[in-house]
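Hey, why these numbers?
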Amino acid sequence: MQNCKAMEGMKPVMVMVLVQSLFAGMNVLYKLVANDGINFRILIAYRMVFAAAFMTPLALVFEIRKSWTNLTWTVLFQSFLTGLFGGTVAQNLYIESLAKTSATYSVAIFNLVPAITFILSTSLRMEKLAIRTHAGKAKVVGTILGIGGAMLFTFYKGFQINIWSTNINLLRHNGDKNNHAQAPSSANKDSGSILLGSGMALGSCTSFSIWLIIQAKMNKRYPYLYSSTALMAFMGSVQSVAFSICMDRDWKQWKLGWNIQLLAMSYSGIFNSGIAVTLMAWCVKKGGPVFVASFQPLLLVMVAVAGSLLLDEKLHLGSVLGGLLIVSGLYMVLWGKSKEMKNQITPLPAPASLQCQDEHQSPTIEVITSSSMEDMNHINDRNVTNN
């Protein structure tokens, strides 16, 4: 019985690890298509279109009867906000920050998502700080450790560590001809551009955190995961396509072909904006927005491992130390959340006065029952005698 409960409690953890694995695969594909000089705004638009095309049939097949009757204007407005903050704004701001700063800098700032989500959740009273309890202290310290590990992972290299070697480099087939066009060197960027890029990266983190908060609210009013994800993808696709058309009117860039770009668009749309968002919505329902956000630094570790296996990238001492801090911080947050859930489930003991009252009432009931049975037997004996 205890093993079943433990497995049930581990389901959200395993689901979030799967979600981060899907996002790690997306990052590898993004690195590959970056060499082809792809327009990332158009990629995001197609990503949301593929997500809507994939999730809508699932919602119609499995949830149409229940979800359609509970669809209100409030739910539609919430889905518009989820598509805006979770899709259009967060992803486009992140890409703009990449262009104005660097990939390393933007990834480092994006690991502030757990801290921002924690602050927003406690401010809105969706998450209890409870700093005086062991669970509250574990969540705070774990969040700080995760952010610190992500910063160490990103900015400190140290000596190179050779753990394994696969001799696989997918970038070698595409070459480096477009690398300089996509990621201009930091020497050509002025301080104003870096400051603006930093603000965009911070805005992307805040937008993603707001999406987690809105998703938690939407789950209570509209607990249909396929339908809510389909609505989010549809709203996000309309917004992203409109934004891309306004920014890029070269219709040749919208043409699709059977290449790595189509694979990146379909993969990120189906697996990331479709399946992963559905799984995250389920985890938000089970553990809350802070629980989901605490897994964000784990993506760094998975991308580093995937890069070393598939892109011939090298691991360094900072990667290992930062990864250990990230995993330690994640474990502390999960431990704190599990303690809170146990405290909420544990029933309160009955007051002593009620227990004493129950003890006094029990023999009284037995005496009354016993005497009643004797009276009934006595009455039956008298009737037999009279007859």
